[in-house]
Specification:
The protein is α/β, with parallel strands linked by helices and about 525 residues long. The chain folds into four domains: about 10-115, Rossmann fold; about 135-210; about 240-375, Heat Shock Protein 90 (2-Layer Sandwich), CATH 3.30.565; about 390-515, Rossmann fold. It has 14 helices and 17 strands. The chain has helices at about 20-30, 45-55, 70-80, 95-105, 120-180, 185-210, 220-235, 260-275, 320-325, 340-350, 405-420, 430-440, 455-465, 500-515, and strands spanning about 10-15, 35-40, 60, 85-90, 110, 220, 240-245, 255, 280-290, 305-315, 355-360, 365-375, 400, 420-425, 445-450, 470-475, 495. Strand 3, helix 3 and strand 4 form a beta-alpha-beta unit.
């Protein structure tokens, strides 16, 4: 429906009136004010109902009393069908009590026929507010849909973790069986088992990518992204808020997901408007910046280079430090009806683009969200698990494996034993400490980062307290890297993505032992 915001389109007015002279007087007021409109005049319920379907009005102007119809009935019929079309009573007999009752029943405004001077301004205001309401509803529905997908992504993330644990034994067992080159049947069985596990892992990754809406091969143009955001926000920006958009170069392009980034900027913009109940300035800024290594915080992967910076800045109420600290916690919100997932969703979207978020805010000084997205994606190192290397063979170095899941633990220990290592097995952090008490400090520790009762990070901290100072391999999910904040300084710490493949593990074991100067026995 066009409304007054539609460029080059007339306002469609459905007029309920039985007096042609009164109808002309009303329309004359609108013409004098420069409103461009087309009108459908009706005076009974059948014609009125038909016009609602066929004419699709932007606004209804209705007399209160007609010989075969009534304004109250016209309002009731409209509200049963649509709640977003403005309805204005125009009557010579509308008293104060009747006017209040009309507004309570869903009328937008009322005008006395004796005083139609404010009719045009009332029509303009009603149409504008209707457009704003529809825009808000569209934005809210988009956010609700996005938050539902975020909840689905969280669920898919948990399922993918469980499925990865189930697939892990297939990959390890397949690699182990394939090593029996003297028995072709076992070798073929190993290849089949490993390939089935790998295809299952690809299915898990596809499921997770679909739930998160990931589409990686898309080129996003800065100008198109901000233009789409501006269209979404049209009608949602309050009259008391001034919106400014500064696009450094509309042709700047980068790899990403247009829909996800649009959702993120829309969420931040709506939050910014809500933070300015008394009005202010909402500014969307863009820039191309070069980030140095010292820009990245502890725990962030340092990736110096050129980034596109998207900033959503408001002059609103700002946030105190305690709110800033909890800003990205799931389900934390300062809104009465909020879910707390909106900002978490933004952070995940930015992280999925290998980007960073920064927030600057103070009470009374407004808030600025800065999104940094890399302009050039860097290729990571990829290890080919099929490449055999003689240096993978161990020479009786002692390796302690700490994994809760019994089948994975057994396969990892068997793999290390088969390649010449002395592998010890522990299913918990406390069992690992008992192993050290009984057998002494090992040459290397291989540990699952996702243990439940005594986490991998806590277990490692306890091992260091017991005198362990050599290398550590942490087995971690790529979508949930371990938190290193609890750890003391460790010179040789390596992370391997799960599910683990045998040759990747063996190569990293060899690398870690040599880096920590463990001599071969």
């Amino acid at each position: 429906m066009a409304g007054m915001g539609g460029q080059g389109q007339k306002v469609r007015i459905l007029q309920v009136e039985d007096n042609p002279l009164d109808a002309e007087l009303v329309l004359g007021e609108l013409e004098d004010d420069g409103i461009d409109f087309e009108v459908r005049l009706v005076e009974d319920e059948a014609a009125y109902a038909a016009a609602l379907d066929e004419f699709e009005p932007d606004i209804v102007l209705s007399d209160l009393s007609l010989p075969a119809f009534s304004g109250e009935r016209a309002l009731q019929v409209l509200r049963e069908r649509r709640s977003d079309i403005p309805f204005i009573f125009i009557s010579a007999t509308l008293g104060e009590e009747a006017a209040i009752e009309a507004l309570r029943n869903g009328a937008t405004d009322y005008i006395l026929k004796q005083n139609t001077a404010r009719l045009a301004s009332a029509v303009r205001r009603a149409l504008r507010e209707a457009d704003e309401q529809r825009a808000r509803q569209r934005a809210e529905q988009e956010l609700i849909r996005a938050q539902r997908f975020e909840s689905l992504a969280l669920l898919a993330g948990g399922l993918s973790h469980d499925l990865r644990n189930l697939l892990q034994p297939l990959l390890l067992a397949g690699d182990t069986l394939e090593d029996y080159a003297d028995d072709p049947r076992l070798s073929r069985l190993g290849a089949l088992v490993r390939d089935c596990g790998r295809r299952g892992l690809e299915m898990v990754s596809s499921m997770l990518s679909f739930a998160r809406g990931a589409r990686r091969a898309e080129q996003v143009k800065l100008g198109a992204l901000l233009e789409a955001l501006n269209l979404l926000l049209q009608g949602s920006v309050p009259r008391t808020v001034r919106m400014e958009v500064d696009v450094i170069d509309p042709d700047v392009a980068f790899e990403g997901n247009h829909t996800e980034l649009q959702q993120c900027l829309l969420n931040l913009s709506l939050n910014a408007m809500q933070a300015m109940p008394d009005g202010g300035v909402l500014r969307i800024e863009t820039d191309v910046v070069t980030l140095a290594d010292d820009f990245f915080a502890d725990g962030e992967a340092s990736a110096a280079g050129r980034y596109i910076r998207l900033s959503v800045i408001d002059t609103g109420q700002g946030m105190p430090p305690d709110v800033l600290q909890r800003l990205f916690e799931p389900f934390f919100t300062t809104k009465e009806a909020g879910t707390g997932l909106g900002l978490l969703s933004c952070k995940r979207i930015v992280a999925s683009h290998d980007g960073l978020m920064r927030v600057r805010s103070a009470v009374g000084e407004g808030t600025a969200f800065h999104l940094y997205l890399p302009l050039k994606a860097e290729e990571g190192e990829h290890l080919d698990p099929q490449v055999m290397d003689a240096s993978l063979q161990g020479e009786a170095e002692r390796v302690l494996v700490v994994v809760e899941e019994a089948v994975q633990l057994s396969l990892l220990v068997d793999t290390l034993d088969a390649y010449g290592y002395q592998a010890g097995a522990s299913q918990s952090g406390t069992a690992a400490l008992q192993w050290i008490e009984a057998h002494g400090v090992p040459d290397l520790v291989v540990m699952d980062a996702d243990m439940n009762l005594f986490t991998g990070v806590r277990t490692l901290a306890a091992l260091l307290e017991h005198g362990y100072s050599r290398a550590v391999l942490l087995l971690a999910r790529p979508d949930a890297p371990p938190n290193f904040d609890e750890l003391p300084q460790l010179d040789h710490l390596y992370v391997i993505d799960k599910p683990v493949q045998s040759r990747v593990l063996l190569r990293k074991v060899r690398e870690a032992l040599e880096a920590s100067d463990v001599p071969k026995a």
